[in-house]
User: Fold this.
Amino acid sequence: MEAQVSRRPADWLVLGGDMGGTSTRILVAGPDGTPVGRGRAGGGNPVSHPATAAAALGQALGAALADLDPARVRAAVVGVAGGSALSRPEVRTAFDRVWSEAGLTCAPTYASDLEIAFAAGTSEPDGTVLIAGTGTVAGALRGRRLVHTVDGHGWLLGDDGSGFWLGREAARATLRSIDAAEPPGPLVTSVLRELGALDEPVAERPDLNGQRVRVIDTLNDRPPVRLAELAPLVTAAYMVRDPSAERIVEEAARLLFETVCRARPPAERTPIVLAGSVASENSPVGVALRALVAERFAGSTRSARDGVGGAAWFALAAADARAATEEARSRLTII
Assistant:
């Protein structure tokens, strides 16, 4: 990764960014890795929604730099999901415009979201990383550079076990329950309520066809990616041992494990970094996934709680390689 560096006085800063489908985050830090500014905005994928992604970047930059002089930023690295879209001139122009409007004078380096997530989880140069949030993508790294990518195909063609996948499975389980005229369990009840298809108070004999139509119409009226908003309902229902939710969680963990397997040689002993809300230690999918990974692979399993810290660490290394210590990385990645 060759980040471009702007030479500034000793009170220089670095900037890291993480652009994903759920949120866009910016972190500004000093030479020792101490955060001095943070910004957060909505998600945006430059492949499918370049204008939205550029606008979100601009909002997050504005918030992070609100009390700082942007000219002090010596180096910047931004991790992007769907970063290949930045090769399109019209997309890159939109990103360059918001960058300039933020007052930044150093040129940004755009990196893979997998690279910055891996750096957020470990300082080791080689290993495997999985991000499971709204979407799913995994990769193998050598020398902190991505050498192989698995999945990341988007909601239509892949993203197995992702937040989108969980939400879609919750919707499908709901429709199957309605078709079978089954008494709704916790998952189905919560999905019906979320979609405005649950009769309140609950009727003794609900209008099943009406519920079916409302579920289908409501979901079809929304952008498909919003199915991911139903994912937390799966987690909540799992916690009360809803059978449908348990099956969905088990299958999601299996699919994510298979994704890791496609990215990692069986005998490798390097670290495995898991990132994203679905793969987190607090997610039932993440817990089940960790058990599968530990049973199959050698090498430690680590969590990346904040990918933006990995991006800032890369920027720190570009600004001054001597400053990119493990201590600085720890400061940058602690939420």
Notes: The longest strand covers residues 35-42.
